[in-house]
Structure formats: structure tokens, C-alpha cells
Write a structure and sequence with these properties.
This protein is an all-alpha fold. The chain contains 18 helices and no strands. Helix 5 (78-105) packs across helix 6 (117-135), helix 14 crosses helix 15 and helix 16 (344-377) runs antiparallel to helix 17 (382-401). It is globular.
Length: 430
């Protein structure tokens, strides 16, 4: 049997675009509308920072056998690596809830009851457990459904980004500039965490080297080109929506891209089709990413840093006990959101912020790993210092932009994670 054909530049670009692009964008217009079109500046700044974070992982891919965030943090310090593994696993777990909530937002036009926080919460919890029990036998065809629906999702976003300018009104864009009433500096900073969510997964580009022909030459170029393509699509699509509708309309429309497609084609039917496709894409993505979260947790458990239950696999090769544990954690999180009276927009914002802030811990230590590698080799690369410095400022800015309540929630989660880590460590030493 011959070797599988490796990807050239064009194929690598598509691979990277598909890795970065997806459900992270579909709820952005509603979130950004809470502040106004001034968030265009926010998006440009976040994109700039995310580019340098991407470059950190591009460089890591050439310097380390395993350039994953947890492995890089472990290289800095084994204890940091173990703790970062916690943050990475549970940050991704919380983001799974975000994806599920975003998908349900696109079903509000068909199920108005989802506007109610209690009904939304109950629906989320039911879906969590339905999908978990579906996953116990593997997802099979689901991965194909994800690839198809995410492609259709992106077509809707790209259509808005390209064709939507016909309906763009500069007067509307200007009137939406800063509806938050905050000073412009604070308005620009607000929502950084939500915007960063659109680029979560930048570290995945470094793990594709084996699939690409001449990776040292092609991966850096393809990564930069792919990242820029995704960034342009994201910025253009969200900006055009802010010039198509008044801020109040977007704030009350979780299915923002369905609204834009409906206006572009002057067809309610087109908007409804887009809503269904985006909902399916999110729900299917939840299935896949939930399994991935359980697998990531298994790796940490195998190393002794998470409960042994995460290491268990059933006869189908699925981390069944890990899925159950994660289901309980997601259920508790959703109950908290219900008690807070969170609608789709609020629940999405809270879960995204928590997820991003947890993931930024291992992202930060990944940059430090590059600097440590440089110091040990005696090379002291100026380029590495620049990309690590800018990406670190980018990471810190996300924490600065978070509200006090969000920071308190993160602190509580971090303390819980550290407590679990301490218990596991003490058991290992006995």
C-alpha cells in the first residue's frame, strides 16, 4: 500500500482554515452589538494579538516534538504542565457548553420558549445527556455531518461578508458606534474574551506537520495565509451586519447570520434554512468536541493528574466514565446559569469568557517554553522574544477586559482545579 499523499500549500491552507473557522463566529454579531460597531477596532486588535499567538505555535512546531499547550507548559515546569492540563481540559469543556448554547440560539425562531432562561437551561441539560449517551457508542457518521454543516455554515458567513455590503448603510454603522455608553477605551476593551473565542484552536496548526509536504517551508506560510483568510471573513461578516441592522435588532437576534441571509436574498425561507444548518453544525460540533475533551482528560489522567475514571474506556474505545463526569460538570454549570437567569446571549458570553480565560493560562506558558528553549540552546532569538512578548500582552489584555464577576468565577474555578490537583498529587506521593 502506497503512502498517503501529503498536502501542498493550497491543501494546507484549507486545512488550517477549517481548523480555525467554525461555530465560534456565529454568535459574535449579537455579542458585539451589546457594545456597538466600535468593536471593529477591538476585532482588529484581537486579530493582531491572535496572529502572534499563532506564530508562537508555528515556532513551537519546529522546536518541539509535541507542541501542544500542555506539553509546552510541562517543558517549562512539570507542575505548571499538570495545572495547565487542568485548565486546558476544563476550558475546552466549558467552550462545549458555549457551542451548544449558540446552536440553540439559532433555533429560537422555531422555538420561542428558548428565550426563557429556565427552558433554555433545561433544554441544554437534556441535550448534554442525550448526546453523551449517543457518544458512548462512538459518533461515527457525526464527524462527516460536522464537516458538511460547518462548510455550509462558513458559506453563509462568507456570503454575508461578500454580498452583504450591498445592504450596508454607513449611517446605520455610525449610529451603532458605541451604544454601550462606556468610555471609548473601555468599550474597545470590553468583549476581548468573546472575540478571542473566535480564534481558539490556533494551537492546532502546529499538530498538522505530518500531513503536509515540506512542513518547515509550507506550514508557516500556509498558517499565516489561512489565519488572514479567516480573520478577514470574521471581521468583514460581523462589520457588515453592524451596518445592515440597528444595534437593537442584532442584540435581540441570536441568529444574526440567518437575519443577514434573509435580508440579502429577501427570503424568510433562506434565513430559516441557514438557522437550521447553523444549529445542526453547532450540535454536531458539540458531539465531536465533547469526545475530544474526554480524550484530552484521559491523557492527563494517564499521567496521574486527573481522577483514574477518566482513563477508563468502554468496549467501543470511548472514555465513557470521563464523558459522564464531564456531563455532571456541564450540568452544574448550566444550573448555575439558570439560577442567574441567563438568556442565550448572557449564557454564551459567560461560558465563552470562562473558557477563554482558562485556556489563556496554557497559552501563556507555551510562549515561555519558547524562551526557555532559546535560553538553553544559547541562541536567544529576537523573533521569538517579539512574538512571545506581543502574544503575552494580548493574553493579559483579555484578563484586563473581563468584568469583576467573570474574574471571580475564574478565580473560583482555578481554586477548585488547584485543590483537585493538590489532592491527586498528595495521593501520588503516598
Amino acid at each position: 500500500m502506497g503512502k498517503a499523499k501529503k498536502l501542498g500549500l493550497v491543501g494546507a491552507i484549507f486545512l488550517i482554515v477549517s481548523s480555525l473557522a467554525g461555530s465560534g463566529v456565529i454568535a459574535l454579531p449579537q455579542q458585539l452589538a451589546q457594545t456597538g460597531s466600535i468593536t471593529l477596532i477591538s476585532f482588529i486588535l484581537v486579530t493582531f494579538g491572535a496572529l502572534f499567538l499563532t506564530l508562537v505555535y508555528v515556532k513551537a512546531g519546529t522546536m518541539f516534538d509535541d507542541p501542544s499547550p500542555t506539553a509546552l507548559a510541562t517543558y517549562v515546569n512539570p507542575i505548571l504542565g499538570a495545572k495547565s492540563g487542568f485548565f486546558y481540559v476544563y476550558g475546552n469543556l466549558i467552550s462545549n457548553v458555549s457551542i451548544l448554547i449558540a446552536g440553540l440560539g439559532y433555533l429560537e425562531m422555531f422555538v420561542p420558549g428558548l428565550e426563557n432562561s429556565f427552558f433554555l437551561g433545561i433544554t441544554v441539560i437534556i441535550l448534554i445527556w442525550v448526546f453523551i449517551f449517543m457518544s458512548l457508542r462512538g459518533v461515527g457518521i457525526i464527524t462527516k455531518i460536522v464537516s458538511i454543516t460547518v462548510t455550509l455554515l462558513l458559506l453563509s458567513v462568507i456570503t454575508t461578508a461578500v454580498v452583504g455590503w450591498v445592504d450596508f448603510d454607513i449611517a446605520i454603522f455610525q449610529s451603532n458606534w458605541n451604544v454601550s455608553g462606556k468610555p471609548e477605551g473601555m468599550a474597545i476593551m470590553s468583549g476581548f474574551a468573546v472575540l478571542i473565542f473566535a480564534f481558539v484552536g490556533v494551537e492546532s496548526v502546529a499538530t498538522n506537520n505530518a500531513l503536509i509536504e515540506n512542513p518547515k517551508k509550507i506550514v508557516p506560510l500556509a498558517t499565516i495565509i489561512g489565519f488572514i483568510i479567516v480573520a478577514v471573513i470574521y471581521i468583514a461578516s460581523t462589520t457588515v451586519i453592524e451596518g445592515m441592522f440597528k444595534a437593537e435588532e442584532i442584540q435581540n437576534a441570536p441568529a444574526s447570520f440567518a437575519l443577514s441571509i434573509q435580508k440579502i436574498f429577501d427570503s424568510k425561507y433562506a434565513g430559516e434554512v441557514v438557522s437550521i444548518l447553523m444549529a445542526i453544525a453547532c450540535l454536531a460540533s458539540f458531539l465531536v468536541w465533547n469526545l475530544s475533551s474526554a480524550s484530552a482528560a484521559k491523557t492527563s489522567a494517564d499521567n496521574g493528574f486527573l481522577p483514574k475514571a477518566y482513563s477508563y474506556t468502554n468496549k467501543h474505545g470511548i472514555n465513557s466514565k470521563g464523558l459522564i463526569i464531564n456531563g455532571i460538570i456541564m450540568t452544574i454549570l448550566e444550573v448555575i446559569l439558570m439560577l442567574m437567569g441567563s438568556n442565550v446571549a448572557a449564557a454564551f458570553n459567560i461560558t465563552v469568557t470562562l473558557s477563554v480565560l482558562l485556556l489563556l493560562f496554557p497559552y501563556f506558558w507555551s510562549g515561555i517554553a519558547l524562551l526557555k528553549k532559546d535560553m538553553e540552546s544559547g541562541k536567544g532569538s529576537i523573533f521569538n522574544k517579539i512574538i512571545v512578548g506581543i502574544s503575552s500582552i494580548f493574553i493579559i489584555s483579555a484578563f484586563v477586559s473581563a468584568t469583576l464577576d467573570e474574574l471571580w468565577l475564574v478565580i473560583v474555578l482555578v481554586l477548585i482545579i488547584l485543590a483537585v490537583y493538590s489532592i491527586k498529587l498528595s495521593k501520588k506521593e503516598v
